[in-house]
Design brief:
35% strand; 7-stranded antiparallel beta sheet; 3 helices; alpha+beta
Amino acid sequence: MRLTLPTLVLAFLPGLAPVATLAHGPTPQKVEQTVTIAAPPAAVWKVVGPFGTIGAWHPDVAKVEATGGDAGGATRKVTLKSGGTLDEGLDEWRADAMTYSYRMGKPDLKALPVSSYSATVTVTPDGQGAKVSWAGRFYRGDTGNEPPEELSDAAGHAAMARYFADGLKGLKAKVEGTR
């Protein structure tokens, strides 16, 4: 019997299939939180828009060190009250569209159990008020095939959703004057 390359490949494929199905890394996760605020969009943007001022409205933030203003490449180091820091860099800031996008620098698993993330904050009109959307994409804290529970997709999703929701509640309270 003469073995050809196609015959050899077909002979070994069934044995490789279980390995291929087990060897996959993390998939990107998404989270989005929104809030409606009883104020004109421009008034909301005045509070949420400046990249370095997250500490003025996010209740989980203890301190912010920002450089570069609102220009692409600006950075902020956000120290959380619960511990840990978020090193973030501004990718795009557009006052005309009331939106900015940023991403994580180096991960701090104590701050958030994710290995990387990018996020966008957008303010849009909503009736007599404004709607603020905070959306992010991230990867879990442990990018191996079998992460511990505290660094899993579910843990990353819960932490990111909580961080965004807390921030939007704080923003709403700040703008509406209830904080």
